Amino acid sequence: MNIKGHKRIREQLTRSLEGGRIGHAYLFSGREGVGKRLVALEFSLALLETKEERDILRVFKGIYPDFREVEPERGLISIEKIRGAQEWLSLAPMEGKRKVLLVNEAHTMNREAANAFLKSLEEPPPSSTIILITSRASQLLPTILSRCQILRFAPLTDREVKEILVEKGIDPSQAEEIVPMAQGSAGKALELALGKGKKLLDYAQELYQGTLSPLSATEYRPWKREKEEVLRLLSFLRTMLKRDMERGEELPSLWERHKLLARVEENLYQYNLNPQLTLEYLELKWRTLE
Q: Looking at the predicted structure, is the pLDDT value of residue 290 above 70?
């Protein structure tokens, strides 16, 4: 598998395999799109000792009998899915010596599902390994966190993200422009390259450059009501600020804009204010700092 980055984590997992020190549960934590699932699949193949191309393809397609992946439906992992996975774990492996359960976006388990899942972590079935993947570890129950070996995935370097984009057929000059906005996430970079999120990025650039018209600022846009989308807009603005600061530009407004972004982010995270009203406040204040 052609995986960029995460050399330390992958070497740690290899050493645990070679030394026979395989944990019963792992938590792969890090921002979206940095390759956590790819590393989890690579580790799963090693645990299952699948070397034949036919078996590797069966794992990737989710039809290998000793491998199961649980994913959210409509943003939620239900207790029914968890109970189905637990029943599957209780059975002996069919083709090898071990079973591997992969739970993607584990933070989307509702409380009932998470409490039920604890039993599998407290009393792990023999010859099984559980891998949880999350971009929001803070939303998992502390009791789940305490029963897993936690591996924290750092963002990819700009070079690694660019290499991934170019390998996917993205023009190098376009990749160069997109990479800084991805903040170490190849997934986010690919979304931007394929047009998803492009309107949000264009909006951020217009706001940053002072070319956003008052009409555009007040125009209704569905994404303005979504907290995650507004936070993503703030991340674009912060990246642009960082770029100008690194260039040595000494505009007094740069530092004031930095403080404004920090204040708005705090309002969204800590006080759970209305995303649209918060954004309108940001747009109004931003223009006064030009």
A: no
